[in-house]
Amino acid sequence: MFLRPKRLSRQKGRHALVDGISFALPVNSEETPALMAGFKIDLERARAIMPGNELHPFRFGNKGLLLVTVVDYRVTDIGKYIEYSIAIACTQGHKEAPPFLPMMFQKSFGLGQYVLDLPVSTEISVKGGKGIWGMPKHRASLDFLIGDSEVSSQYNLDDQMVTRIDLKRPTGTPLPLNIGAANYCAFRGMLMKSYIYFKGKMYFDIGQKAKATFTLGNHPRADILRTLNIEPDAVFTAFFPETQGVLDDHFESWFLSYDTPPANTPEGLESVIDLGHSEEWLPPPRSSPSHSSPTIHSSQLHSSPRSETTIP
């Protein structure tokens, strides 16, 4: 478990200005609902996606694990936005970790997630998340719909669906959580490791009780996900009606190394240096009363037809 550093509490009341973005420290969020689901994937194909030589897919038996996490940020220093994370659970080290054990010894095995794709609603979120922490953020059309019995989120680019997650809301007694997690991202030819700490009440289901559908659309950005042979049944599902979070301003980075010289130039600072601070959203992927508000009424859950392929 990643314990929240005491220095983050000591930052309270201080301020920072990084790449022209003002932050009241620590970098936090409030009143933030979120959903999460995990799906088994092909282990060998997950290995092939990992960058460099020190990240390895977390071994869920003889499978890997895809993590889909959508966060509806409502109160932050940079305004409201949705963040739609598609990632592979991973470990960090010179060799692959044994199955399951990293769940008990998270720091020893560098347990975290390698973020494959991270669309967000606003330009300022891209500028900060990618330019400072190296996250693969880009602006996209997103929504986050909360209904009485389900939660869903859709991700569109160029008027085409990339992915959609539909989650049956877990019921029962919520579990209070106060934990941390590590994100690994590839940017500028480096591996970037950042830390987030959050707390809230989690409603969750595991095994056969966990009901979620992860659907791939026709957009080419979903092609890399098609290679993973994502299994249709969720391993777990979780819904947080409200969370509070802190993104650590401390992060780590290493050069990504390979057995042979890389043939392609990695994405660099040219992708963020000219970005502005706009908090404007793109039109929503499904019809809704207002795309300026992150939460859309549940009556809009299935309001528009779409072309898609359900996994697998």
Query: Mind summarizing the main beta sheet?
Result: 7 strands, mixed, barrel
Overall pLDDT metric: 91
> Roughly how many Å is the radius of gyration?
19 Å
H-E string:
HEEEHEEEHEHEEEEEEEEHEEEE
Count of helical stretches:
5
Oligomer, anyone? single chain
Helix proportion range: under 10%
Unreliable runs? 288-312
- Secondary-structure-based class equals mainly beta
With strands numbered from the N-terminus, the spatial order across the biggest sheet is: 3-5-6-7-13-14-16
Features:
312 residues; 7-stranded mixed beta sheet; mainly beta; disordered C terminus; 7-stranded mixed β-barrel
Description:
By secondary structure, the chain is mostly beta strands. The chain is built from five helices and 19 strands. It has helices at residues 6-10, 43-49, 106-109, 123-133, 223-226; strands spanning 15-18, 21-24, 27-42, 55-57, 63-73, 81-92, 112-120, 137-139, 141-142, 144-146, 150-157, 160-168, 175-187, 190-206, 212-217, 234-247, 252-255, 295-296, 308-310. The strands form three sheets. The protein has a seven-stranded mixed beta barrel. The longest helix has 11 residues, at 123-133. It is globular, with a radius of gyration of 19 Å. The two termini are 33 Å apart.
